[in-house]
Design goal:
The complex is a heterotetramer, with 2 copies of chain A (about 140 residues) and 2 copies of chain B (about 80 residues). Chain A has about 140 residues and is of the alpha+beta class. Chain A has helices at about 10-15, 50-70, 100-115, and strands at about 1-5, 25-30, 35, 40-50, 75-80, 80-85, 90-95, 120-125, 130-135. Chain A is about 30% helix and about 40% strand. In chain B, a hairpin with a 2-residue loop joins strand 3 and strand 4 (about 60). Chain B is globular. Classes of the chains: A alpha+beta (about 140), B alpha+beta (about 80). Chains in contact: A-B, A-C, C-D.
């Protein structure tokens, strides 16, 4: 399952999409809108993407992960538009026979997605300020 | 030939438009598209210092040649997830 | 949420229990009954536990994780009794402000649970054989 | 004094009972409980080679002294998750 959605992500259906009888371990990562970042209060985030390229890169990430780990099921779903505090902007699920690969693959996918896949977020702060986030170094992000 | 460059996030905000159309005598390289964009919209110069270009949904090198059926995107540093 | 249940694990409620506005990342691990292990076919697993000790150890794991990582929410739910192929025997969820800690903590909790917390599984194979699993070395398990 | 030892998994299966009651003149150590268990149920000797003991829900050392209000469990290698 590789999808870009403009509504809340249906997490149970993401998990169902990676279920398989050959699976012993499933790791799900959820990125959610955090209220405070370095002391500044966020009301919501607004995500946009380069749709065709983002979807192709998400599918390519799944394929590259498959070449690195024995993956039974892989799902990447990213939400665009407004994502209020506490809601999920990205869900990544990986199922494998044994757990080490599931942890490694899920973490690799979110790390790589954050570096390579054309989504952008705009912080909409409590003080009314708005700001597109364009990280230019390896500053940590959730 | 005309090349349309799709803009996103802060680049779209600065340019005030989701895409910019450029005119070239022959198929330009990515570097030539970059130079033409800055000439047309000097306010983009700062952000373009750290932008990539995508051609047909793949990150492109500066010397890649663009034909008129290519889709070109200006990609500011990404911040998804 | 630290629970031992004898019914299917309610994964959405596990995720809800670790949700918080201060959270930017949630990692969920699910251990599921795998059909094939080293070529042998499993029909189902049967889990039993030393209930009072297991629950106390699960809570202590949550506490130890809290001392190691900046955790906003932590849940460990283990199912006992029969767990058919494809169903979940354990769910671990961790939410943190930033994602590295969530991955590290979730993996540490499942690794430590598998070494220290008194649950046992009996493999019930397709050929009728049944076998309590008592790992005596560091053989990989899902 | 009586000490009841709770059994689990393969140990419970071998003993054919979920617990075994042992009688001691005074509060025994874990090592003494272990020895008495093997004398009463020699079939447990093999599996006990890799078992731990728990006293009041905590893993116990062999020299820990057990009083009559202690809950004692024989813990075969765990395999949860």
């Amino acid at each position: 399952m590789f999808e870009i959605v403009d509504q809340p992500i249906d997490v149970p259906s993401v998990l169902r999409s990676v279920a398989a009888h050959s699976t012993g371990a499933t790791v799900l990562f959820l990125g959610t809108t955090r209220q405070f970042t370095y002391g500044k209060e966020t009301i919501q985030l607004e995500y946009e993407c380069y749709h065709a390229m983002a979807l192709q890169k998400m599918q390519a990430l799944g394929q590259r992960a498959l070449e690195k780990w024995p993956i039974e099921g892989c799902a990447i779903v990213h939400r665009i538009g407004l994502v209020p505090v506490g809601e999920t902007s990205v869900a990544i699920a990986v199922s494998t026979p044994h757990r080490v690969a599931a942890f490694e693959a899920a973490e690799w996918i979110i790390d790589t997605l954050k570096r390579e896949v054309p989504f952008w977020k705009k912080e909409m702060y409590a003080d009314g300020q708005q700001e597109w986030i364009h990280p230019t170094d390896n500053s940590p992000t959730p | 030939m005309k090349i349309r460059v799709m803009l996103f996030a802060v680049a779209k905000q600065i340019a005030g438009a989701p895409e910019i159309e450029l005119e070239f005598a022959a198929g330009p390289t990515v570097a030539e598209v970059r130079k033409a964009l800055i000439q047309l919209c000097p306010d983009l110069a700062d952000v373009m210092a750290c932008c990539m270009f995508a051609v047909n949904n793949e990150y492109a090198s500066m010397d890649q040649v663009i034909s008129d059926d290519c889709e070109v995107g200006l990609i500011p540093p990404v911040s998804g997830g």
